[in-house]
Amino acid sequence: MAIIQMIDLTKKFGKLTAVDHLNLSIEEGEIFGFLGPNGAGKTTTLLMLVTVIKPTEGKAIVGGYDITREPDKARQLIGIAFQDPKLMWVMTPWEVLNWHAKVCGLTSSERKERVRWALTELDLWGDRYKSVHAFSGGMRKRVEIAKILIQRPKIAIIDEPTTQIDIVGKHKIWNMIRELKDEGSTIILATNELYEADLLSDRVAIMHRGKLLVCDSPKKLKDSIVGGDLIEIILEKEAPKITIEELKNINRVVEVLVLKPNHLRIYLNRAEEILPQITEFFIKTHLPIRSIRMSEPSLDDVFAHYTGLTIEEAEK
Questions:
Q1: Could you report the per-residue pLDDT of 147-191, keeping only the tens digit for each?
Q2: What is the reported pLDDT for 171?
Q3: What are the pLDDT digits (tens) for 23-80?
Q4: CATH numbers and ranges of domains, the chain
Q5: Average pLDDT over the chain, rounded to whole?
Q6: Confidence label for 88 from pLDDT (cuts 50, 70 and 90)
Q7: Would you state the pLDDT for residue 52?
Q8: pTM for this model (two decimals)
C-alpha cells in the first residue's frame, strides 16, 4: 500500500522548473532510493514532502494527508536528516540529540537510552560533550543521522546519508538504516551514491533535470539494459570463426567480441540464466574453458543508459 503519492508534483523557482510534474508512489515499509546528480530535483521534492516549501502545481499525499491542506498532520509522520547538518555551533552532540528526542515526545528514560545508543553506535560517545563547531563534516553528518535513528519516524527521509563518512562508518549507517526499516519505518534515501542506492533500496527512481526518468527495483533496471550483462571466457585453445557465429545465435546474446583468439567477451541479457547454456555450448564444441567471469551492469550504467551521461557528467 502506498504511504506517499505524488500527482503531477511541480516546483518552479522563477523560470527554473526544479521538479517537473512528478508522478510517483512510495510503498509502506520499503527503502526507496531517489537517484540523480546534484540539481536533479531530489532535495526540492523532499522539501515539498516535509512541507518546508509548497508545490507550484500538483499535490502529494503523505500517510493519507494532503501536504498543502493538512501540513501539520503530514509533518508528524516524518523525520528528516538533511544533506547539510542543521546544528547550532555552540551545542554538543548530547545536547542536540537530547533536545531532538524531547521534541519527538520521548520520555526521559527513552531519551537517555536512545541517545546513548546512537552516540555509541556512531562512534561519537567519547565526543558527546564537545562542541560540534570542532567536528569534521563526517562527524557532523553522523550527528544528523543520529536524529533520525533516535526518532524512529513512520517515514524517514535521509538526504545523502553517508556524505563525508569513511567506509567503516558507511557500513554502520547502512546496517542501522536496514534495522530502522525492520522496525517498521518507510525510508527514502536521496543520494548520488549509486552503489549505496543499489545496496539498500527495494526500488529506485532516477531523476534528471527535474523529471522522473524511470522507477523500478535495481535488478529490473539493470536487466532493462539490452546487452548490459557481460561474460568473459578464456578458452584452452582458439575458437574457430564458425563457433563465434554459432555463439551469437544463442538466445539473449547481443554481441561477441574476440579480444584474443581464445579470449571472448560476450554481451547479453540475464547472464545468470544463460550461463549454463553457454558452458554447455563450449563442452559440445570441444573447447575447454580455462576461466570464466560474469558481471552485471551497475546503477551507474543504468543512469548512463537513460540519460546518455555518467552521473559525474550530469553534475557538470
A1: 999 999 999 999 999 988 999 999 999 999 999 999 999 999 998
A2: 93
A3: 999 999 999 999 988 889 998 999 999 999 999 999 999 999 999 999 999 999 999 9
A4: 2-217 (3.40.50.300), 226-296 (3.30.70.100)
A5: 92
A6: low
A7: 93
A8: 0.84
Radius of gyration of the chain (CA): 24
> What's the angle, vertex CA 149, arms to CA 145 and CA 153, rounded to 5?
115
Give the DSSP letter string of the chain: -EEEEEEEEEEEETTEEEEEEEEEEEETT-EEEEE--TTSSHHHHHHHHTTSS--SEEEEEETTEETTTSHHHHHTTEEEE-SS----TT--HHHHHHHHHHHTT--HHHHHHHHHHHHHHTT-GGGTTS-GGG--HHHHHHHHHHHHHHH--SEEEEESTTTT--HHHHHHHHHHHHHHHHTT-EEEEEES-HHHHHHH-SEEEEEETTEEEEEE-HHHHHHTSTT-EEEEEEESSPPPHHHHHHHHTSTTEEEEEEEETTEEEEEES-HHHHHHHHHHHHHHTT--EEEEEEE---HHHHHHHHHSS-HHHHH-
